[in-house]
Write a sequence for this structure.
């Protein structure tokens, strides 16, 4: 999201889900939408089927939603900046861009124009594998649309060039005047139901709730006054930095809530080694997880059905959770566990209900100032909603960008950190399948779901023939960091030279293979590209 | 309501617009940021337009002010602290300052409306309040766009 925050002043999805119906053209890049965000995927399929909305899908795999696309293009993993630059090159060259919008609302156009002028269709075909003619078709369809929206997910962010990729999507949407209007927008689809809310609430190393910076003395004093405690003046560590610091002995204790880095982080062998070096590991989760197996203390937490609360979804909409059943055994709501622990350590927290916490959020988080417990009814409220009278904000940047003018920036294409070579000639990309969720801490408890979707290596027909495997036979995938075995799923949906492995499965953990190299700004690892070799197991 | 009384009301309102115009002009001249300058220049221009409207009304109190009567008060200005005036103000601070000033104007006409007993005078104060409210709302909408950056 760092690229969006820098270019627009806001990293969240700019538009809302109901606005999907107002698009003329939808571009999906780096999102297996029907697998990872099926609700949004259904809305998109609906408007394509029934409202004649045109769909462009750009993805290394021919994902299910590509079956609905007017144009499906397969790019080489990690070549997104080149592809987006190529599209912008053609849009500028053909004068399809929104000159008035660019002039009035943006800055940096000349810089962008200069850089993208180098990205001719011929050059982009060499870099990405997308044929010249197809790139021209994409540029024309997108560039001439009255209103076009862009959706992306981790296929854009989980690269060492993730920030560049995101900024490029913002460049394209500013160029076409598609920001600040219904049916347009740059729409990053969040990976979990409340990841937006977690960020909004300051579950980041450098900000308090509402993105108020920890290095800002006024903000710090405000929170010190509210919480009655002296607060650190320094920025903390990101998740990837924490594990590195644990390995180096600089971090002695970790408290992990609802996260399973032993499956979800890259280079799992290194994660295990880092966790073993800790003096204390506490894990709070609803089931035992691969990470909890390393813990000194495990706190059993309540599931979504066992607690009241609020969460903020991908479109900045705050919604209610309503307790339906009692928590089993000794498990408790997350905030209750934290309060008990804090008080055992000498604090005097006194929240009686989740509603009390929301009152505090309203008082300390300006964009949530009007999002009271009572107002968040069936439809929810979208921030910014600064006062109790305010109706919330369905789409951002209507009149102005949060940073004033939208900042366009020419971005040069950079290769991924690890490229195929003689020893590791295949590119591995990772992701999700519809039937499982994330590291499977919940979905893999269901035998039915496991029967529907187990571990697999998606492999092209050509590569399968080369190594002599047929559908269902086991394939060994080996990277510089580890190896796994899983049944082959031989298909035309993936191109020669690329394999896809879902990361849900402990018995064939994709992240044993992945590269821990991170984007220098966002610190997100490059899960989407690394070099591997494959063989019949 | 006699003509003298009406003249006094409109003179007061006009003098407030002139004051606001001069204030925004001075701030614009003193700040460094080009975007902030633009914001204040625009505000000064709008205050001048208000002055023109009021002068027309003063001459003919029955003429239409063509005001938006469907105004919602989201009270964003009320929930915001008055920023310190400085030469290195950021655009968001400039908008904050302006909307606080409009809030004060709304409150000013509201208090006059409450005190007035003559229905005609009440109506005029109500219209003046609506005029300021429209300006406040416009500024609040801009503030909501730029006041809550999600940068980390």
């Amino acid at each position: 999201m760092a690229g969006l925050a820098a270019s627009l002043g806001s990293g969240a999805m700019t538009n809302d889900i109901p606005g999907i119906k107002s698009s003329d053209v939808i571009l999906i890049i780096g999102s297996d939408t029907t697998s990872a965000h099926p609700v949004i995927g259904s809305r998109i399929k609906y408007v394509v089927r029934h409202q004649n909305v045109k769909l462009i899908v750009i993805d290394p795999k021919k994902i299910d939603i590509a079956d609905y696309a007017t144009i499906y293009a397969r790019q080489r993993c990690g070549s997104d900046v080149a592809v987006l630059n190529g599209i912008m090159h053609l849009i500028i060259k053909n004068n399809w861009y929104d000159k008035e919008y660019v002039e009035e609302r943006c800055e940096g156009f000349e810089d962008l124009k200069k850089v993208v002028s180098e990205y001719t269709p011929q050059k982009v075909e060499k870099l990405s594998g997308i044929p010249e003619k197809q790139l021209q078709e994409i540029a024309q369809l997108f560039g001439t649309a009255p209103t076009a929206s862009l959706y992306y997910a981790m296929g854009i962010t989980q690269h060492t060039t993730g920030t560049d990729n995101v900024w490029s999507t913002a460049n394209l949407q500013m160029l076409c005047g598609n920001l600040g209007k219904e049916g347009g927008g740059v729409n990053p689809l969040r990976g979990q139901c409340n990841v937006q809310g977690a960020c909004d609430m300051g579950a980041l190393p450098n900000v308090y709730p509402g993105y108020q910076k920890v290095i800002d003395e006024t903000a710090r004093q405000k929170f010190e006054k509210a919480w009655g405690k002296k607060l650190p003046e320094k920025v903390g560590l990101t998740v990837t930095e924490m594990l590195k610091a644990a390995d180096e002995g600089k971090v002695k204790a970790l408290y992990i809530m609802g996260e399973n880095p032993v499956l979800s982080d890259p280079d799992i062998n290194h994660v295990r080694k880092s966790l073993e070096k800790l003096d204390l590991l506490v894990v709070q989760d609803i089931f035992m997880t691969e990470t909890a197996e390393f813990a000194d203390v495990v706190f059993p937490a309540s599931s979504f059905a066992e607690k009241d609360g609020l969460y903020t979804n991908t479109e900045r909409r705050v919604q209610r959770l309503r307790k339906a059943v009692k928590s089993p055994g000794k498990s408790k709501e997350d905030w209750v566990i934290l309060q008990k622990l804090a008080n055992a350590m000498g604090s005097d927290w006194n929240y009686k209900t989740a509603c009390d916490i929301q009152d505090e959020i309203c008082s300390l988080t300006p964009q949530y100032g009007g999002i009271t417990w009572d107002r968040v009814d069936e439809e929810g409220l979208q921030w910014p909603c600064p006062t109790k009278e305010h109706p919330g904000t369905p789409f951002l940047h209507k009149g102005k960008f949060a940073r004033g003018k939208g900042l366009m920036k020419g971005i040069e294409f950079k290769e991924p950190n690890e490229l195929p070579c003689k020893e590791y000639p295949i590119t591995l990309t990772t992701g999700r399948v519809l039937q499982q969720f994330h590291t499977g801490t919940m979905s893999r408890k269901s035998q039915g779901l496991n029967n529907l979707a187990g571990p697999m290596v998606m492999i092209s027909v050509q590569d399968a023939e080369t190594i002599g495997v047929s559908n269902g036979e086991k394939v060994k995938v080996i990277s510089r960091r580890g190896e796994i075995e899983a049944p082959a799923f031989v298909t035309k949906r993936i191109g020669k030279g690329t394999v896809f492995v879902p990361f849900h499965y402990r018995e064939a953990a994709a992240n044993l293979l992945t590269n821990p190299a991170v984007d220098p700004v966002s610190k997100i690892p490059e899960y989407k590209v690394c070099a591997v070799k494959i063989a019949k197991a | 309501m006699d003509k003298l009384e009406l003249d006094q009301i409109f003179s007061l309102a006009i003098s407030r617009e002139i004051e606001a115009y001069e204030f925004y002009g001075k701030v614009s001249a003193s700040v460094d940021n080009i975007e902030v300058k633009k914001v204040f220049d625009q505000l000064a221009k709008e205050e001048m337009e208000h002055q023109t409207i009021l002068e027309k009304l003063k001459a003919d109190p029955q003429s239409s002010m063509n005001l938006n009567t469907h105004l919602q008060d989201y009270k964003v200005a009320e929930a915001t602290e008055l920023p310190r005036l400085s030469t290195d103000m950021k655009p968001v601070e400039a908008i904050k300052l302006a909307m606080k000033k409009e809030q004060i104007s709304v409150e000013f006409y509201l208090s006059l409306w409450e005190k007035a007993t003559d229905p005609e005078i009440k109506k005029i104060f109500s219209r003046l309040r609506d005029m300021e409210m429209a300006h406040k709302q416009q500024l609040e909408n801009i503030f909501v766009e730029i006041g809550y950056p999600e940068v980390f």
In short: Residues 25 and 44 of chain B are 6 Å apart (CA to CA). Chain B has a mean pLDDT of 82. The domain at 3-146 of chain B is CATH 1.20.1260.10 (Ferritin). The helical segments of chain B are 3-30, 34-59, 91-115, 119-146.
